[in-house]
Specification:
single chain, Rossmann fold, Arc Repressor Mutant, subunit A, seven-stranded parallel sheet, six-stranded parallel sheet, 35 helices
Length: 717
């Protein structure tokens, strides 16, 4: 059977996701393969489909028992013979699974590296053909990774015992350095490397300053009633306190941390997975083994240690491909806590940890599209100026204010204290602190002492990070001290202006509608209830029966026959046989009761119609070409001026030339000024309008610059 046929018939999916087919073919050709693909990108299919085609066994090395159990349960639901060997099994079940392997009745075996290295496991596997060794969470093999596990280092030596087996390594988070480490430590031979985009387009990213974290969290949760979510905290104590507060407010919530017994942790995790509990409050000990696809939000109540941890933790949201909300509360007190623990480390480890923490803070304090620094960290360049799925992309550039005087005060204080102190000490001096350190160093006698009392400590610390981003100061990562750069000297001399964010804005939570499909909410609720009923009877998590994405499609397309049901995402042969009639009966009864017409088109016919619909920027561009005025366009599309300008910008950026006369009617700029502005665009590029605005000394408005940007790009075509 071909990979494409297995994809449809066994898994119930119509198309491969990006890279999946190429990865599968590489593994089938027995090329050692390294795959870096984000959480929710479809890694499992890349080794599960070859496992069904190979004659022999595929070994899957996985670090967590819960992850193995979850995967094996999902495979059993679609009729794929898979087992795991670990300490959670009874002696009898362990022997049964060994017998199935020995008799070649299993296609996939899930084991931890410790189990694989046991003599009895190697003896068992010596009598079967092993075609593939899959190393899941492969970043665990690297000391540079955020989750190093020494036992992973044994895998390369063990793999030598299986000379016919191809090695396929998978991870969701690996910097270029970690990728090299994986290749080296697994002894991969001429590996084919596949790096998927780290961009999880369905995740809405938001960072807010932590002020009253409990109130901020409650306000957020009110926007997502009865939805599954994870709240990450720094310590066990914080988990317990927040759990008690939420429970007191009648939220469906459980705690999870290493201080609980194994039985408690397992119970809480299963309650969450089975939708018996909606929210988990956890330390980072929670989540690595969670494959729950319908997590609609992740809140970081406290700051994570680094971007890799943050990325992996937000990756637990929206694994079904539907939209999810990721909120990070940025508290400067959290930075001090993390730094305290970092300072306990050895020199090399400490330097790496400080650099990783600083990268996370730079991301959190960035006022550009959040995907730019996030993806850059993983070596991927984000080409767009705006993603439309983060808080910064919704802010207008006009929110930046002139902070040149504040920058001059800060830089002056850095110099007068000898360029040997970090931001905390500089801020203490600026705000006139009477701390022992300031007095002992005689810094209370400096001319910069107390000149920054007008701003809060948080505002100054935020500014210091912005100054680092603008490279008017630089940081010694070993000692944490700040130094003034050549650019900073220009600021001090008044030759360069600095823009930044000074005031904390009122926070708004934009609720993410999980799907763009206009589905029947009542039918969806009935389908969910039926799924939960089946799941409770079988002991499986509800998403193992069908994920939300499948139910949403059912509630959109109303399939009334087995053949139409098979067109729904995630409905393969086995699931159609097992559950098809149950769900078809419910859908048909609902349609009869609510007088929903019986002659409903199939999903594919609807999809074909949908794909014919042009992208909005193309619709706007083509309408512009036929239009007589800008107001006519505004009325037609019923959007704000800036939204229309953004669509036109994209239209010309993709090579579509237009007549700019209508646009030029919007602005009052003479030809000489326009030429001057185009010269600035020549020099600074068109990625961002703000640098051009600054270069022109704020003499041309943002609105006019956005219009001229289109004209400039258009002129280059």
């Amino acid at each position: 059977m071909t990979p494409k046929a297995i994809l449809k018939n066994t898994f119930g999916y119509d198309e491969f996701r990006p890279l999946q087919e190429d990865i599968i073919n590489s593994i089938l050709k027995k090329n050692d393969t390294l795959v870096i693909m984000p959480t929710g990108g479809g890694k499992s299919l890349c080794f599960q489909i070859p496992a069904l085609i190979f004659e022999g066994l595929t070994i899957v090395i996985s670090p967590l028992i819960s992850l193995m159990k979850d995967q094996v349960q999902q495979l059993a639901e679609i009729g794929i013979p898979a087992v795991f060997l670990n300490s959670s099994l009874s002696a009898e079940d362990y022997r049964t699974n060994e017998e199935l392997i020995r008799n070649k009745k299993v296609k996939l075996l899930y084991v931890a590296p410790e189990t694989l290295s046991m003599e009895k496991t190697l003896t068992l596997l010596s009598v079967v053909k092993v075609d593939c060794i899959t190393v899941d969470e492969a970043h665990c093999i690297s000391e540079w990774g955020h989750d190093f596990r020494p036992e992973y280092r044994q895998i390369a030596e063990i793999s030598l015992k299986f000379k016919d087996a191809v090695i396929a390594a998978f991870t969701a988070t690996a910097t270029p350095q970690v990728q090299d480490d994986i290749i080296k430590n697994l002894s991969l031979k001429k590996p084919k490397k596949f790096v998927g985009s780290f961009n999880r387009t369905n995740l809405y990213l938001q960072v807010i300053l932590k002020r009253d974290p409990l109130s901020q969290t409650i306000n957020f949760l009110e926007k997502y009633p009865k939805q599954s979510g994870i709240i990450y905290c720094f310590s066990r104590k914080q988990v317990d306190e927040l759990y008690e507060e939420l429970q007191h407010r009648k939220y469906s919530v459980r705690p999870y941390h290493a201080g609980l017994s194994d039985a408690q942790r397992k119970k809480h995790q299963e309650e969450f997975i089975k939708d018996d509990v909606q929210i988990i409050v956890a330390t980072i000990a929670f989540g690595m083994g969670i494959n729950k696809p319908n997590v609609r939000f992740v809140i970081h109540y406290d700051l994570p240690k680094n971007i890799e941890s943050y990325y992996q933790e937000i990756g637990r949201a929206g694994r079904d491909g539907l939209r999810a909300h990721c909120l990070l509360l940025l508290g400067y007190g959290d930075i001090s806590k993390i730094n305290y623990f970092i300072d306990q480390k050895e020199d090399k480890e400490r330097r790496i940890a400080k650099m990783q923490l600083d990268a996370l803070i730079s991301y959190a304090e960035s006022y550009n599209c959040r995907r730019i620094p996030l993806l850059n960290y993983f070596g991927e360049k984000y080409e767009s100026e705006k993603c439309g799925m983060c808080d910064n992309c919704e802010k207008e550039e006009e929110n930046l204010v002139d902070v040149t005087i504040e920058a001059q005060k800060f830089l002056s204080c850095v110099i007068r204290t000898g360029e040997i102190y970090g931001a905390m000490h500089i801020v203490d001096v600026l705000r006139g602190s009477k701390s022992q350190k300031v007095i002992n160093k005689n810094h209370h006698k400096l001319s910069t002492y107390g000149i920054g009392e007008n701003l809060s400590k948080e505002q100054w610390l935020s500014l210091s990070r912005q100054f680092l981003q603008k490279t008017i100061i630089q940081k010694d990562y070993e000692f944490g001290s700040l130094k003034t750069t050549a650019l900073g000297m220009e600021v001090l001399k008044g030759e360069l202006k600095v823009k930044g964010i000074l005031e904390v804005e009122e926070v708004k939570y934009k609720v993410q509608k999980e799907s763009s499909l206009d589905y029947d909410k009542k039918l969806f609720a009935l389908l969910r209830a039926k799924r939960k009923e089946i799941a409770d009877k079988t002991g499986a998590p509800p998403y193992v029966i069908f994920p939300d994405k499948t139910l949403i499609e059912m509630a959109t397309y109303f399939p009334k026959t087995p053949s139409l049901l098979r067109e729904i995402h995630g409905v393969g042969e086995q699931k159609s046989k097992k559950y098809g009639q149950i769900f078809l009966t419910l859908i048909n009864e609902y349609c009869q009761t609510n007088n929903i017409a019986g002659n409903i088109e199939s999903k594919h016919r609807k999809r074909r119609k949908t794909t014919i619909k042009k992208a909005m920027f193309i619709q706007v561009g083509e309408a512009y070409k036929k239009s007589n005025s800008f107001d006519e366009l505004l009325n037609r599309f019923d959007v704000k001026r800036n939204t229309l300008i953004s669509h036109l910008t994209r239209y010309v950026s993709e090579g579509n030339k237009i007549n700019t006369d209508i646009l030029m009617d919007l602005i009052q700029i003479d030809e000489e000024t326009q030429k001057n502005i185009f010269t600035v665009f020549d020099r600074l590029g068109t990625n961002y309008v703000r640098p051009v605005f600054d270069e022109l000394n704020e003499t041309v408005s943002y609105d006019d610059l956005r219009v001229l940007k289109i004209c400039y790009i258009n002129e280059q075509l």
